[in-house]
Amino acid sequence: MEKQQLVETSTSGVSPGVKSYASLLRQSAVLEELGTPSEHISGAPFVFIPDDNIAAAKDEFRDFIYARFHDDWPSMGRIIGVVNAIWAKTGPRIYVHNLGQGEYLLKVTTAKTRELLLARTYWNVAGFIMFVAPWSPDFTPEEAPITNAVVPVELRDVPYLLFNQQSLSRLATVVGKPVSLAPETERKENFQVAKLFVRVDLTKKLPTKIITGF
């Protein structure tokens, strides 16, 4: 099935003696004359785009990562600063494209950095949770695993008698689906903090206090 898209154009003159844009660009950025436009039934010029052009375009989007914040998100400048400070200290700059409503595209040109970013479902960026997923022109945000994740949870002031696997599982169930105890908590090395791993829905507000009774 052929897809048709209206593209508006505008032109501007170039003064004599001014160096052309093409001469200032890299060879990879220089455009060329391709194809022969025909006339659409509406009277406008019609340009047919071959399948191999579309396939090549999809391949060029391999550098992009989809990122989403829920409820609230930091400023654009803050996001750019944090992601580059953390993941682009020694490599190429990460470009951030704002899609609106807490959704962004990150252009990460280094394969190793992309793998690192996608190794986890979410990251903490300036105090806000940022979910990430691979992106392509066929990407659908609803299909990405960006609503829940296994996260470390700390429980403080837990009574000694509740410092066992069964009781901590009950406490963790308030937060989400319990997964496991942290090794130091399993060994009872520190009674001030119980560290657990819990699968939580990070689109919902998590409790800050739990009341127990026994």
From TrEMBL:
Residues 58-143 form the DUF4283 domain. Transmembrane segments: none annotated. Signal peptide: none annotated. Pfam families: DUF4283 (PF14111). This is DUF4283 domain-containing protein.
